[in-house]
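Is this the right way to post structure tokens for a design question? Let me know if I should format differently. Anyway, here goes:
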């Protein structure tokens, strides 16, 4: 049976390793598009290694990476046979800079290779990787690592990814690529960019690369039209995401107004013009509360190629979300006790961010106030131009005094949560702090979290699989049947 050339279901690329390789592989094996999250994979890799890589999966993938010297350096520095002691913190990584060392970039490339390789292992299904445009420093080496592993799709949202299609094309040809950085305080004639040269990185031993399809994630037909017409490289379609989706949301169009809960109010201007999307003559998938059979059928009737679904997959058996969180959320969903807040200030990135209210997590005001501010992962840091013309980096969730000393405004720190550490805690890789203990989770999901019970296969069931999600979603799509793809 041949694999679906164009999937109906795209599994969302969620959080930090919530959409881990196990989930993407499970979805891909149903004939739909499994997606790994490309966020912070270097940190995920080294923490898995420090836990001893108990199943050996990471080390198995590392043996397939085409540059063994790079692998040897990583294993020598980070692998702990048998795992680190429970009372020891994880070794931290040096934060990425605009001119990071070869060894630091090697971690990014290798980590993206590992995640995609494992997701694609032993089957012929489709696997994609999801990146965030607002996290710019690791983007180019991340693309290269994923492409070495043969990734089929690249998805990118949380910004305007106009340079990415061209970067993918150039990497396929083994050419050096640049990505302009957004820098606070930069002037029109300033040039700040990151550069990645595959030939220099590999000492001239560039492996054969196949071009993946590129799907920008957009919140409006206007942005989709601009990307389709002005991107230097080829755009292969779009994911059109509404404000009820989990994670970061696009801000409302026009002046921001808040409701009584402090959430941004979205209006008619934020409804995507589907006629305009159809006029682009490119496939598009609808996202944001499309996690039901009825919505899948409705999306197809509207001319969409299908839907992207995140929240339903975030709490399935193969998800990277910690088992305790999955169990708690599914039980609360059955009893109708869940609440999701679109928090306009939680994320240091400045985008509205969906936060699930969960006792003991950073959504709990007591837990949030008790946490001592620190910034030791730094993926959501923002660059700024220093007085001497060089780049500086700051984060509104770091210690307030440090942020202000770097020229930031104190009012911008109010309510900011450390999304980086919170998302690592969601997957059981939270850092151990000397006084506070293990970092608290910060769970993000879409509004569909209240309806997870539809995926339980019996009244007695307390969990469900990725297969259960896909089969349920496709249950009203008569023209397509759920069939596993061939195993290699």
């Amino acid at each position: 049976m041949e694999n679906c050339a164009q999937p109906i279901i795209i599994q969302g690329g969620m959080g930090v390793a919530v959409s881990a390789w196990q989930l993407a592989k499970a979805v891909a094996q149903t004939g739909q598009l499994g997606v790994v999250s490309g966020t912070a994979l270097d940190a995920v890799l080294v923490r898995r290694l420090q836990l001893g890589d108990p199943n050996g999966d990471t080390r198995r993938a590392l043996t397939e990476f085409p540059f063994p010297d790079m692998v040897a350096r990583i294993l020598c520095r980070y692998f702990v046979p048998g795992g680190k002691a429970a009372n020891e913190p994880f070794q931290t990584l040096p934060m990425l800079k605009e001119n990071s060392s070869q060894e630091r970039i090697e971690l990014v490339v290798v980590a993206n290779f590992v995640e995609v390789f494992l997701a694609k292992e032993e089957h012929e299904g489709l696997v994609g990787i999801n990146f965030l445009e607002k996290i710019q420093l690791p983007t180019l080496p991340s693309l290269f690592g994923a492409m070495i592993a043969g990734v089929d799709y690249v998805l990118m949202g949380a910004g305007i990814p106009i340079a990415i299609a061209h970067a993918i094309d150039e990497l396929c040809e083994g050419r050096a690529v640049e990505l302009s950085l957004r820098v606070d305080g930069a002037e029109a004639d300033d040039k700040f960019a990151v550069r990645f040269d595959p030939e220099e990185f590999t000492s001239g031993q560039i492996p054969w690369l196949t071009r993946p399809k590129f799907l920008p994630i957009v919140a409006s037909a206007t942005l989709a039209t601009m990307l389709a017409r002005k991107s230097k490289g080829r755009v292969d379609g779009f994911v059109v995401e509404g404000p009820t989706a989990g994670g970061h949301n696009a801000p409302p169009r026009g002046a921001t107004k808040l409701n009584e809960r402090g959430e941004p109010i979205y209006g008619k201007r934020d409804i995507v013009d589907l006629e305009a999307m159809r006029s682009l003559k490119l496939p598009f998938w609808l996202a944001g509360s499309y996690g039901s059979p009825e919505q899948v059928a409705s999306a197809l009737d509207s001319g969409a190629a299908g839907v992207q679904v995140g929240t339903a997959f975030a709490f399935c058996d193969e998800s990277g979300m910690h088992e305790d969180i999955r169990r708690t959320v599914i039980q609360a969903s059955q009893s109708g006790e869940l609440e999701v807040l679109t928090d306009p200030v939680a994320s240091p990135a400045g985008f509205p961010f969906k936060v699930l209210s969960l006792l003991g997590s950073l959504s709990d005001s007591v837990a949030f106030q008790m946490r001592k501010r620190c910034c030791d992962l730094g993926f959501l840091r923002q660059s700024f131009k220093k007085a001497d013309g060089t780049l500086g980096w700051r984060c509104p969730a770091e210690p307030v005094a440090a942020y202000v000393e770097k020229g930031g405004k104190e009012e911008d720190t109010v309510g900011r949560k450390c999304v980086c550490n919170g998302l690592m805690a969601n997957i059981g890789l939270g850092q151990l702090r000397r006084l506070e203990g293990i970092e608290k989770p910060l769970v993000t999901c879409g509004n569909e979290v209240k309806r997870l019970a539809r995926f339980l296969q019996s009244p007695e069931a307390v969990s469900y699989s990725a297969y259960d999600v896909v089969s349920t979603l496709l249950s009203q799509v008569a023209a397509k049947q759920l069939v596993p793809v061939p195993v290699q």
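Format looks fine. Someone answered above. Worth noting: The two ends are 12 Å apart (CA to CA). Residues 9-321+451-473 form a domain with the TIM Barrel fold (CATH 3.20.20).
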